[in-house]
Amino acid sequence: MRTHTVVPSPIGPLTVVREGGELVRLAMSPPAHLDPDELGDRSDVGFGDVVRQLGEYFAGERTTFDLPLRPHGSAFELAVWDQLTRIPYGETRSYGYVAKAVGEPGGAQAVGAANGRNPLAVVVPCHRVIGADGTLVGFGGGLPRKRFLLDLEQRADRLF
């Protein structure tokens, strides 16, 4: 059974969806593109670990997430999303780098498309992927949010 809650954050409300104890969706609100069946019933029960870890992340106290994840996607998308979790906190990689890492050296655009379908924003850090020339490009939550997340990680990284 799917349930969801909404978690306040510095980048706006985050809609978090769980199914069977696993995180299947974390969307920047408003999630207008989400089907109500995809969200399930609203419940604040069972999301304590997500709320705590997101709070620690936004406070600059957490650099990795330890949450049970179950994203749904194609084999390629799953490979890309797995690779995103390997980008160290406070660092960035280009779309081309990620494409090579998943065995598709000419697949930068496909990586961009997979990034755009990332169902677990922030936790699966698609914001850490940038253009080959270092510019901020492509972020479903908008480039100001991407800049905020990257700046947050740079500031917090200096504290450790």
From TrEMBL:
First-listed, main subcellular location of the protein, grouped into a coarse class: cytoplasm
UniProt-listed Enzyme Commission number(s): 2.1.1.63
Active-site residues, Swiss-Prot/TrEMBL: C126 (nucleophile)
UniProt key word Cytoplasm: yes
Keywords: Cytoplasm, DNA damage, DNA repair, Methyltransferase, Transferase
Recorded catalytic activity of this chain's protein: a 6-O-methyl-2'-deoxyguanosine in DNA + L-cysteinyl-[protein] = S-methyl-L-cysteinyl-[protein] + a 2'-deoxyguanosine in DNA; a 4-O-methyl-thymidine in DNA + L-cysteinyl-[protein] = a thymidine in DNA + S-methyl-L-cysteinyl-[protein]
Coiled coil: none
Subcellular localization: Cytoplasm
Alphabetized PANTHER family for the sequence: METHYLATED-DNA--PROTEIN-CYSTEINE METHYLTRANSFERASE (PTHR10815)
Note: This enzyme catalyzes only one turnover and therefore is not strictly catalytic. According to one definition, an enzyme is a biocatalyst that acts repeatedly and over many reaction cycles.
Function: Involved in the cellular defense against the biological effects of O6-methylguanine (O6-MeG) and O4-methylthymine (O4-MeT) in DNA. Repairs the methylated nucleobase in DNA by stoichiometrically transferring the methyl group to a cysteine residue in the enzyme. This is a suicide reaction: the enzyme is irreversibly inactivated.
UniProt cross-references to HAMAP family, sorted A to Z: OGT
NCBIfam families linked: ogt (TIGR00589)
Protein name: Methylated-DNA--protein-cysteine methyltransferase
Record organism: Blastococcus jejuensis
